[in-house]
Design goal:
By secondary structure, the chain is an alpha+beta fold. The protein contains 4 helices and 13 strands. The strands form 4 sheets. The protein has a 7-stranded antiparallel beta sheet with strand order 1-4-5-6-7-12-13. It has a two-stranded antiparallel sheet with strand order 2-3. The model has no long low-confidence stretch (mean pLDDT about 90).
Length: about 250
């Protein structure tokens, strides 16, 4: 019942009233043509009071439809006007060092992120939840490697220098889990190569966070210490979209 009532109310306001206004307006126009130009010996006519009531209901329904169209247009216009503000918070150069989960991302790093909760409000504090990729201003140690860039999904790390990485993990079909590779203990990886990782799921209360941004800052569920190294390979470098050509996001409060 609590779910049914809002659904019925939405149907009444968004569908029934506009449709009723359209039908009444069309019917009244047809009736006006009938009264004015159709000549019958025993013409059926509505009472003047009934016509007035129908006209009044049609006007109210059409006025409501007009209000809804205006509000929808205003919301769409506001969304378009704030597109630049949203973009400046999705593609930017980090103005200060920022602790994100287990790693400290240095100032000057290029950030790409996506934030479905950002409506383009001015003065919104700096945030990194929804992080997609980052190119570090200087090498950062994470997941046991020195990285120059990071991609979140899938977990790919661009190596900042030659380094020996291990232990290597492989997927074991028998246990259906990732286990250390007993044949290959480590790999000699080169600068510019891409290290691939298996990222374990971090459990959290889905219901408690429904409709809310994911935790940010030191509380972010970004735990590279739990990542399992799989391999390193020659591959395309991690690419990011350039920073948006506006001022940087505001500093975190």
């Amino acid at each position: 019942m609590p779910v049914l009532l809002p659904t019925l109310l939405h149907f009444f306001l968004a569908t029934f009233l506009p449709m009723l206004g359209l039908l009444l307006t069309s019917g009244l126009v047809i009736y006006a043509v009938y009264v004015r130009w159709i000549d019958l010996p025993h013409k059926w006519l509505l009472a003047p009071r009934a016509v007035q009531v129908l006209i009044g209901v049609a006007l109210l329904c059409n006025a409501w439809t007009g209000v809804r169209l205006y509000l929808a247009h205003s919301a769409q216009q506001a969304w378009q006007d704030s597109a630049g503000v949203r973009a400046s918070r999705e593609r930017f150069v980090l103005p200060q060092d920022y602790q994100y989960g287990e790693i400290l991302i240095p100032a000057g790093s290029l950030i790409n992120r996506s934030d479905p909760f950002d409506k383009g409000e001015p003065g919104r504090p700096l945030a990194l939840h929804g992080l997609q990729a980052v190119r570090f201003a200087q090498p950062v140690e994470m997941a046991g490697v020195w990285a120059s860039a990071l991609q979140i999904l899938p977990a790919r790390v661009e190596l900042a220098q030659d380094q020996h990485l291990g232990p290597v993990h492989r997927y074991d079909n028998a246990s259906q889990s990732w286990v250390p590779n007993t044949v290959i203990s480590g790999l000699a990886c080169k600068k510019g190569q891409i290290a691939l990782f298996q990222v374990p799921h971090v459990p959290y209360d889905v219901q408690a966070e429904l409709g809310k941004p994911a935790p940010d800052g030191p509380d972010a569920r970004f735990l590279p210490s739990q990542w399992l190294f799989r391999t390193c390979e020659n591959g395309p470098p991690i690419t990011l979209e350039p920073a948006h050509a506006t001022t940087a996001p505001a500093a975190a409060q």
